[in-house]
Amino acid sequence: MVVRGGWRVKLLHLWLPLGFALAFTLFPFYWMAVTSIKPNSELYNTQMMPLLVHNPTLKHYIDLFTETPFLLWTWNTMLVAVVSTAISLVLGVMLAYPLARINFPGSALIAIGVAGSYLVPQPLLFIPMADIINKMRLGNTLTSVMLTYPTLLVPFCAWLLMGYFKTVPHELEEAARIDGASHFQAMWRIVLPLCTPGFISAGIFAFTLAQNEFLYALIFLTKSTVRTVPVGAIAELIRGDVFYWGQLMAAALLGSVPVAIIYSFFVEHYVAGLTAGSVKG
Amino acid sequence: MTALPSGSAIALEARRLPRFRIKEGTAFGWAMVALPLLFLLAFVGYPFVYGIWLSLEDRSIAQSAIFIGFGNFLNDINDAVFWQVVRNTFIYTIVATVLKAAGGLGLALVMNQNFRFKNLVRAFVLLPFIVPTVLSTIAWMWILDPAFSVINWILIYLGGAPPGPSWLGNPYLAMGSVIVVNTWRGLPFYAITLLAGLQTIPGDLYDAATIDGTDAWQRFRYVTLPLLQPVLLIVTLFSLIFTFADFQLVYVLTRGGPANATHLFATYSFDIAMTAGQLGHGASVALAMLPPLALLIVALTIYMRRQ
């Protein structure tokens, strides 16, 4: 649709609603940033105009790095996200490739099972899972979350990749097969390289989902040294009724930065992954 | 976080040819799916069944279990808080979904115009959806703080009476607050997906409708809406499932309070199972989510398979 008319129409139909939406969307991030560089004397003074910083300080960031294991939490979060994303991509390919390209007995049933396991939400599984992890003696290990995050990510990666695998013409694979390639070689050398955008989409999505996970990390990781950023912030920057707001906002901002940076490089792939399946075109 | 799995990402559709040596394909297929399938059976299928078993037991942490049949579910039925949780979850899910769908559609229509920095704006709009929920919810907690809320500062500055509303302390305001934060987080998903849907509607249709003398509302009602309906339906079903089972946002913002006013199935079952240590009872509350969820999941699975 093209807006016809002068700047007045454009203002009313475009910039005003867009400005309002962006203000609503971005204000919490602005607020994180502003709060994290305010000295406590400003933070807890209701007389002062709060929307601006009068005497910026890095004290909260310094405190966050020196008084809490924030760097360790960041390392844990990254490690867990990278490992579970890698596991999920490998297992996702192993599921998606045959389901998308080979019509073998049982494949339809498996496809439904994968869709179902994607749609079963975590709160339905966390109580038995807590007991299982407990019995496997994996409590307070990063292994516990590296093992359980892929349960959320594998079905998603598989569904996303199936869409990409289906777009590669069968003739390419068949030509390779006539030349003597095995099923595996045809997949590895011909089809997978053509689906690189799919891997980027699935990988970025899985990575952000892994960074976002909270429930399993909250239950399985109760020692400070194994915590991830969200759990660490909730459990250790809120002590009893005392909220360290400056540090909390610094942690929230720093914890969001890695995801935001990676996302900003691959926005197009992210949007492709987001809209795949619901939008044809 | 929700995302749509793909069924049909790209319009290129492979031409079906007769298969090569079917038997060998079967062996290859099963060899490939065996490991991931075992993994999903062990860590999704088994916990699911085990959860049903737990819900039939009187089971506390570090104690031996007693099988009590439907005892936990009978307890739930006679528990006033349980029914409050049911009511809360439905109000939360329905109101938040309506707000997200209406707001997302509105934003998608606004963004479906030609303007400068469109890609940049789209990247910004999606930010709430990609940033870890717990971290952005902490920022909202500070925005809604009882003593230092910036909203209250603005209200007072504009002439309101101090100290201003207690956003998370009053039961109705607390429910309103968690709904607004959920909307803030989920609206981008609707907006960006619906925008992608809008972009697939051919411009000729609008031109034809304009020549036929329709006004803007009629074009929206009889061209845009019917063509957008499949996308809208799938996005809404997804959003319903994950809003209904929401945990993070409420856990961080209110812990279900004040006086259980914002407790959802997930946070209430967490309290019972993890805080009070009653695994069986907690599992029964979590499983109470299943009937409405199952309806949504079956509907969506069938719809996705049909596409």
Structure description:
The complex is a heterodimer of chains A (281) and B (307). Chain A is mostly helical and 281 residues long. Chain A folds into two domains: 7-57, no CATH class; 67-275, MetI-like fold (Orthogonal Bundle), CATH 1.10.3720. In chain A, 73% of the residues lie in helices and 1% in strands. Chain A has helices at residues 7-36, 40-43, 59-67, 70-101, 107-119, 126-135, 142-166, 170-178, 183-194, 196-212, 215-220, 229-236, 245-265, 267-275, and strands at 238-239, 242-243. Chain A has a two-stranded antiparallel sheet with strand order 1-2. In chain A, helix 4 (70-101) runs parallel beside helix 7 (142-166). The longest helix of chain A is centred in the first third of the chain and has 32 residues, at 70-101. The mean pLDDT of chain A is 89. Chain B is mainly alpha-helical and 307 residues long. Chain B has one domain (72-306): MetI-like (MetI-like fold, Orthogonal Bundle), CATH 1.10.3720. Chain B is built from 13 helices and two strands. Chain B has a two-stranded antiparallel ribbon with strand order 1-2. In chain B, helix 2 crosses helix 12 (279-287) and helix 7 (171-198) crosses helix 9. Chain B is globular, with a radius of gyration of 24 Å.
List keywords for this structure.
heterodimer, A: 281 residues, mainly alpha, MetI-like fold, two-stranded antiparallel sheet, 14 helices, 2 strands, B: 307 residues, two-stranded antiparallel ribbon, 1% strand, disordered N terminus
Helix content of chain B: 55-70%
Derived structural class of chain B: mainly alpha
CATH class of chain B: Mainly Alpha
Mean pLDDT of chain B: 87
Question: Which helices and strands appear, and what pairs or packs with what?
Answer:
The complex is a heterodimer of chains A (281) and B (307).
Chain A lengths: L6 H30 L3 H4 L15 H9 L2 H32 L5 H13 L6 H10 L6 H25 L3 H9 L4 H12 L1 H17 L2 H6 L8 H8 L1 E2 L2 E2 L1 H21 L1 H9 L6
Antiparallel strand pairs in A: 1-2
Helix pairs in contact in A: 1-13, 3-13, 4-7, 4-10, 5-7, 7-10, 8-9, 10-14
Chain B lengths: L21 H34 L1 E2 L7 E2 L3 H7 L2 H32 L6 H13 L2 H11 L6 H8 L13 H28 L4 H9 L4 H29 L3 H6 L11 H11 L3 H9 L2 H17 L1
Antiparallel strand pairs in B: 1-2
Helix pairs in contact in B: 1-12, 2-12, 3-7, 3-9, 4-7, 7-9, 9-13, 11-12
